[in-house]
Amino acid sequence: MKIVGIETSCDDTTIGIIQEDTILINKKITHGEMLKKYGGVVPEVAARNHVDLLDILMKNSLEECNLQLKDIDVISSTIGPGMIGGLIVGNSFARTLAQLNDKIFIPVHHLEAHILVSGKDFPFLAVVISGGHTVIVLCKSFMNYEIISNSLDDACGEFFDKLAKEMNLPFPGGPYLEKIALESDIICPINIPMAGKVDFSFSGIKTEFKKLINKYPKETIAFWMQDLVAKILCEKINIAIQKTNIQSIVVCGGVASNKHIRKKLQQFQVCFPPIELCTDNGVMVAMAAKMHVLNNSPMVNNFKINEFPRMNLDLWCR
Ligand code: KG4
Ligand code: ZN
What we know:
Strand order of the largest sheet: 3-2-1-4-5
Structural class: alpha/beta
Strand content: 15-25%
Low-confidence stretches: none
Distance between the termini: 27 Å
Oligomer: single chain
Largest sheet: 5 strands, mixed
Bound molecules: 5'-O-[(R)-(carboxyoxy)(hydroxy)phosphoryl]adenosine, zinc ion
Helix content: 40-55%
């Protein structure tokens, strides 16, 4: 079974093709010009970029795998959450291609894709840390998910990106902060927010860190930020383990590509997707679609479901 996965929920136009468990291709075009010009993502511009890029990316991906459309069995795409314009572009493309060519179409939830790319056996706790979400999900079995913890305000990646902007680093700031981060002897003056609670909050520490920007070297602040996030994650994961009695942990989403955070979380029974599968990619969509096929889920050939900008994973399963 060969599956195409399309991911256009934010500013990367991405396509992945898998055959069973093998990744045939993982292609990504970042909207660099938009990010440079506007210093961030402009939803309308991103959606237009997806229109311009998706068709050619699909052609190139097939060609590079020595495949033709007739060799593909399933076409899947992220249906939400995300920016509605980009989602509509990706799904219109996927649905049309599937319908015209008699392929199976599968809509996929973005967080489910981040989680299922790990290929981990159920049950486990999934810690999704991305630019739009920070959640801990108890994954009991396929399509049986319970949200244990959420962010009350900003997402973890948003915390990195917003502060990086204040520090004049390019967007998205997370990877640039990791690049410049340097440990120093000075102890970070900011503590874990919401200590003892299972939920996250990043907006308070964002304000605290802003006050430090001209007082300490950028490199030190960058190190403190990723180190504090690692400590916050450890604290919340411990609480989630106590609540659920589940020790097996998957950490995924864009921020999970941070090497310092990956190292600090090794104290748990943890697994991370490979770094190139942590930030948004089409392979994760295809992997999730494969699970829908194997479980004969209601999403198989579900042409009726509409794109959605927001929806918790637990609602998605109902
Ligand atoms: O999962 P993702 O690609 O997109 C969303 O679903 O939001 O995550 C993007 C987020 C951005 O906030 C980005 O700054 C962050 O992941 N990120 C990182 C690193 N690479 C990406 N944050 C910290 N360290 C990194 N190496
Ligand atoms: Zn994502």
